[in-house]
Each structure stands twice: as C-alpha cells, then as structure tokens.
Amino acid sequence: MDYFNYRNDELFAEEVPVTQIAKQYGTPCYVYSRAALERRWRAFDGAFGDHPHLICYAVKANSNIALLNLLARLGSGFDIVSLGEMQRAIAAGGAPEKIVFSGVGKREDEIIAGLKAGIRCFNIEVAGELDRIDRLAGQLGVIAPVSFRVNPNVDANTHPYISTGLKENKFGIAFEQALSEYRRAAQMPNIRIIGIDCHIGSQLTDNRPFLDALDRLLELVTALQAEGIELHHLDLGGGLGIRYKDEQPPEPADYIHAILQRLGNSDLEILLEPGRAIVGNAGILVTRIEYLKTTEHKNFAIVDAAMNDLIRPSLYSAWQNIIPVQTNSRADERTWDVVGPVCETGDFLGKGRPLRLCENDLLAIRSSGAYGFTMSSNYNSRPRAAEVLVDNDAAHLIRERESIEQLWTGERLIP
Ligand SMILES: Cc1ncc(COP(=O)(O)O)c(C=O)c1O
Ligand SMILES: N[C@@H](CCCC[NH3+])C(=O)O
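Above: the input record for the complex with pyridoxal-5'-phosphate. Below: its predicted structure, written as tokens.
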C-alpha cells in the first residue's frame, strides 16, 4: 500500500494511505485524521486544569456527524448557528445541555426547537431576539437561559470578511447597549440570564485581541454584579488560528493560560467555541490532476476539485499548501496555477506553486479540515466530495460522494 507520510506536519502526523483511499472512494475526497482531531480537542480541554470550563466546538467548521460524534464522546459541547446544526449535534450524541446557540438571525422555529431540546444557552445578538425568546418561552411554559453576545469593538487583525467584533460588523449587541439589555432581560418573566459572550473573528494569530475583548467583557461583568446581576459563565467565542503557511498562532495551552491569568481568581466558568483550531489541520482535500496545460504565459494544473469543493482560496485569497501525494515524480519542476473545472476565473486552489507534476497524479491540499466541506456547494451541478476518516490503519467512509441523481431530486416539473 502506498502511504503518504505527513510526519512533517505538526498535526497530521499519521501515515495516511491516501492513494488507496483515492482509488477506493474516488476524488475529490476529504480525508480527516481521528488522532489529530482528538489531540487538538484535548489540548483545549486539558489546558483549563480544574478551572470550570466547557469547550463548545463550532459545528460550522466541520459538521460531519462522525466527527461530531467523536467529539461528543470526549465530552465536548457544541456551538451551533442553525436548527440544522443543532439536529446534527444531537444526532451525533451531543448533549443538549452542552449546546450554545449563536447567530444574528435566529428564526422562531429554531428558537422553539432549542427551547424544547433544553439547550444550555441562547447567545442573543439583537435586542428583538430577547423579546422573541421571552415570548416563545412563555408560550411553551419554560424559562430560557440566555447570554448576550457583546460586540466589544476590538480589531481582530484578520481578513475583513471574517472579522466580527468591530462596531461596524453585524454581530452582537453594541457594547454601549449591553447593560440596558441585561437590565431589560432581568425584568422578563421567562428569561434566566446565565452568561456573557463574544466572538471577535476567525483565524486570529495573536492572543492580544482576545485579551482585549476579555477585558471589556469583564468590565461588564463587574458592572452587572454591582446591579445584582450575577453571571455564571463567560464565553470568549472561537477564532484561534492555525498554521496554513508561516503563521505562528499561539498553542491552545498558551492562549488558555493567558485567559486564566487575566481572569485572576474569578470563578466564572469559561466557555470557548473553537472550530478551525480543532479540525483545520486534521484534514486534507485529495484531488487528481486531469490535465496539464502549458501556455506561453502560464502553466495550469487542472484538477478534479474546484471552488465548489473548497472555496477559501477564491473567497478570501486564502493560501493553503498543495503537495503531491507521490513524492517520486521525475517531472521537471515548473510553476503551476492549480485550478478546477468550474467556469470562473476565480476557480483556483493555489497560484504560482513550484511543483513536479504529471497528469493523473494525486495532490493533497492541506489544512482543509475546517470550512472545507461545510462551505462546499453544488455549483456547476457538481456532486459534493466524499469524506473519509482515518483511524489508525483503517479508513472509514463517513460520507459518500454525492450521486448525480441527488443533485436534482426534489425539483418538480410543472404539469
Ligand atoms: C459565534 C462563533 N463562534 C465560533 C466560531 C468559530 O470560529 P473559529 O473556527 O475561527 O474558531 C465562529 C466562526 O467564526 C462564530 O461565528
Ligand atoms: N469560513 C471562514 C471562517 C468564517 C468563520 C465563521 N464565523 C474561513 O474559511 O476562514
């Protein structure tokens, strides 16, 4: 069996039989490592020692039910942003009392489902949401546990599309409004205030913005205490970055120690909502080269994965490492744009990559475990890729490649 050795990768250290997986399940195909996933989750959980905490993995990063199930078995909580994510987390064995519900646009049916399931907390992001939750909880005869997602107005220093904690962003309750919303909530018959929350952005590579946000939240905690409103938890959201190229984000342990230090002797329970930092480097996207096209101006490696499978390069100009699976190529090195078959000039997975390539070779696009499959689409009527989980020597198919028929079932002709 042809093994692909990832030993140089800090997180994907296992030997993964990529060639065999590609043959068996076809390409493009996402491949994840159970060991890497669990190692990262434990790095977060373990760093808290005996300080009360809950790691609520952000389901949006990768919502495959087998992965959620592995995390649920470790005792993970889940951060969800839709009813679909709630159903996935619960179907995967996630405990409702460990689910926090974020998101700026929660619909009535989503709130009702969350209340009926008995989730841990609604992270409220809009004043109107508080009134809606109070009313719906009253109708159901339950008390809704809530926290406010406060927008602390700190610069996360990340890509503008994934920065969420500035006052011009749509997320959270403005810092200046937070106290009055807490006061309003404290008067409501069907609301129980339990926490405070923020999430300032994604792919942060420095502790500083997190600590600035924490300071602002702690200011509010103190102000609330003075008014007799006691909080049980503080949720600092997700956002810790990973290494795609040469970034050097803090390790979870350093990040958490910095948080605990800043907390001093407060016994507030700390919740975190990491997504990318748990699963990002636990996955690769495997693709096959269909054609090599060399022109006077450019060399294109046309592969069978495309922007519909992995949109990060097209959407954020994100750089992800692309490496050949077989390392014994005799081809000359050239500079390649690695592109997909989709009819968009923006359909690329990497540009200007020096590689030795032959048609039919397999390539691995690294760091694809987060926001890879979950952001994929059927654009150009392309079926979604298969997902495979490697657990020691065994490769388990955890989601079949979509069939062409599945792409149009549900559409109806008008008689
Ligand atoms: C509310 C919330 N929590 C958690 C996350 C997870 O972020 P990340 O994958 O960067 O850890 C996100 C996405 O940015 C989010 O919007
Ligand atoms: N999807 C983004 C991150 C957004 C996080 C969602 N709040 C990415 O791939 O980097």
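Notes for the reader.
The first helix runs from residue 18 to 25.
Residues 60, 162, 202-203, 312, 371, 375 surround lysine (ligand 2) (CB under 6 Å).
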